[in-house]
Amino acid sequence: MYNTYYDYEILNAVMLIVRYAASSALCLSYTRSFLKEKNDRRYTFAVWHILYILGALTLYFAFNTVNVLQNIICTVLKIVFLMILQRLLFHNGGAINWFTVFSFLVGRTLTLSIIGVLVYRIMGDTHINILFGISEMVGMDSEQFLIEYGYTVLFVLYMITAVIAAIGFILMLKLYLSIIKKSFRKKDHRLQRKESVFLIFPLAASLCISITVRMMEYTDNSEIYSDIFDVVPITKFFIPFVDFLLLCTNIAVVILFQSLVEYNEEKNKRDLLESQIYRMESEIKEIQDIYSDIRGLRHDMKNHITDISMYVKKALGKDDPIVESYIGKMTETVDRLDFSFNTGNPITDIIVHQKSQEAEKRGISFKSDFSFPLKGNIDVYDVGIILNNALENAVEACENVNEPYIFLRSYTKGNLFFIEAENNFSGEIELAEETGLPLTSKKKPESHGLGLSNIRRTAEKYMGDIDISTERKDGEWIFVLTVMLNV
């Protein structure tokens, strides 16, 4: 016969450590998906697990009571403890720190409640029935079987129940946290005050409801208040069902929040795209008028220079090298008034010419082999959006490069029209997993990437897309943006 007291105490201690070790691992993995570590991953792993398990055990033994006030204090201390642990090992993420702490604690608390009722309450009630069933199977008197083997069988059944409860707790909590991580797609989004309230208040309410449920399960004298399950047996299923609904509610809040964030981002990008098109149309109309006047002036100036040259020759009766040189320089100056790029469309001529002038002012070598497609129904202003944003990004990326260059080209394959912008850059570019667009180190990351997003949005109008590639060539990094349009 087993010494049941010590056996149960040892088993409970083992299950407690297993539960806290699993909670520590899940919490660390969950936190890493939202916050950046200050130190090496192995250092964070070791320090986190040691401090988490020690802190959790300390709170467990200090507040292992059903007293309502002490449960509230214990919950507050858990929040403070996890916040300190995050600040110690991770960079400050602002309101996202509070969200990760609250969402994890809510998931852990509600999951423990669900497993505790479903496994320990429901399965625990069947242990005696299983014991009598085994005695009948072996053909022994129930009292004799209970005396000889009862404690052993009950301990084994309790051990099986404890293992099932631990596995169920780990799997359910992992599933909950995984859904939250997957649903919270905009992890780099800086939470505003109203957004923080929107996310954290439902989580705080869930914690309060969990404490309220514990008040119904236990009495003030630290004895299990079993009447709630004996008098109203349906509560064995209703309480876990309510906890499950709370978990689903918190997940739904995250999904709704992400949908609102994405909607606002899409709206901002759409407004920016429309603003760019409107501004481009007005600017290009003005520039077209200016360049029309310049073309006329260039034509007239060339005629005047030719007339002056012939008049001087006739007056002098011979060629004068000084006059020839002077008139030649005048001709070169007049030639610069014309476009250096002929793309096949006056609007794209202007855009490419402007960007080339901007690049040359910054010491960037600019070459173009771009031609506007003769066939197809592509709006020239859509192509203008692509060229403007692509070349603007390329000019900006060429900063801090020894021999910067930009090469713009286009080509057609069947019904597909491709635009490529190639440039060199310093450092490395990390692409976001969600969008495939480059990440930024700018102080205002929320305004970064709108140009590339607008290029992609424009390409999608023509059933196309963009492709970004980087490669190291001759000791420097090369960035290539390819835009595909279906013409």
Please describe the topology of this protein:
Layout: H1 4-32, H2 41-62, H3 68-89, H4 95-124, H5 127-138, H6 142-183, H7 193-217, H8 227-230, H9 235-316, H10 321-335, H11 346-361, E1 365-369, H12 380-397, E2 405-413, E3 416-425, H13 450-461, E4 465-473, E5 476-486
Parallel strand pairs: 1-2
Antiparallel strand pairs: 2-3, 3-5, 4-5
Helix pairs in contact: 1-2, 1-4, 1-6, 2-3, 3-4, 3-7, 4-6, 4-7, 4-9, 5-6, 6-9, 7-9, 9-10, 9-12, 11-12, 12-13
How do the strands of the widest beta sheet line up side by side?
Answer: 1-2-3-5-4
Query: What is the count of DSSP helices, taking H or I runs of 4+ residues?
Result: 13
Terminal Cα span: 84 Å
The total beta strand count reads: 5
Largest sheet: 5 strands, mixed
Structural class by sheet pairing and helices: alpha+beta
Helix share bin: 55-70%
Which descriptor suits the 3D outline? elongated
Indicate the mean pLDDT: 80
Segments where pLDDT lies below 50 for 5+ residues? 220-226, 441-448
Q: Give the amount of beta strand, in percent.
A: 5-15%
Radius of gyration: 36 Å
**What is the helix/strand order?**
HHHHHHHHHHHEHEEHEE
